[in-house]
Specification:
The protein has helices at residues 5-41, 52-55, 57-62, 65-88, 108-115, 128-132, 138-153, 182-189, and strands at 92-93, 99-100, 166-167, 173-174. By secondary structure, the protein is mostly helical. It has a two-stranded antiparallel ribbon with strand order 1-2. Strands 3-4 form a two-stranded antiparallel sheet.
Length: 199
């Protein structure tokens, strides 16, 4: 049997009440998740693009509709200015062009660099040169200089020459340093001595 107009209207009203109840339940869950994320990351209303008037649901719901609309219009201008400030003036950057405003959670590129042992001041814009001039620890300085002092104190390998040189009639020669060449080994195995090839 077909439903009358009044029956359909009653059904619509019933479904709308059910929808509002479901929306309230779902909204509570979403609000709880948002609150948990804000608390976990330490986010502020300014970072989210809101000011104090927008973030207070009790204030906006309690206030009459006509007075809340102008307040929202007035507060939207400073919010956009503050977000533009944070975007236009990054505080940190790296060699790849990544930037961070210094507020909110640190980006992945900065976290990775800090875990690799870099100093956050190396990425501070305007102070990068100063951060690079920080003095090297004494132990690291000694370790960095010690290979240079060793090479300066140690004679060059060219100065270590053998007093004797060896050669045969075919034109083979050996300086006397390092392993014996194959032609000399073969001659010694054939019964000759090293003195036979001395020059």
């Amino acid at each position: 049997m077909a439903k009358t107009y009044e029956q359909i209207q009653q059904q619509i009203e019933k479904l709308q009440r059910q929808a509002k109840a479901l929306q309230a339940v779902e909204a509570k869950g979403v609000i709880d998740q948002i609150k948990a994320a804000i608390e976990h990351y330490g986010l502020t209303a300014e970072q989210l693009g809101f000011d104090g008037a927008k973030t207070s649901p009790l204030a906006t719901s309690a206030a009459p509709a006509p007075t809340s609309a102008p307040a929202a219009k007035q507060s939207s201008k400073p919010a956009t200015k503050s977000t533009n400030k944070s975007k236009s003036k990054p505080q940190f950057s790296d060699e790849s062009g990544n930037v961070w405003g210094g507020r909110g959670p640190r980006p992945a590129w900065l976290r990775d660099a800090l875990q690799a042992g870099r100093d956050i001041n190396e990425f501070r814009i305007g102070k990068r040169a100063k951060a690079k001039k920080t003095p090297m620890p004494l132990g690291a300085a000694i370790a960095a200089v010690s290979p240079l002092t060793k090479t300066a104190a140690t004679p060059a390998p060219l100065t270590k020459r053998s007093k004797m040189s060896y050669g045969d009639d075919v034109g083979h020669s050996w300086s006397g340093m390092g392993p014996k060449p194959g032609w000399l080994k073969a001659a010694i195995e054939a019964g000759k001595s090293l003195a036979d090839f001395a020059k």
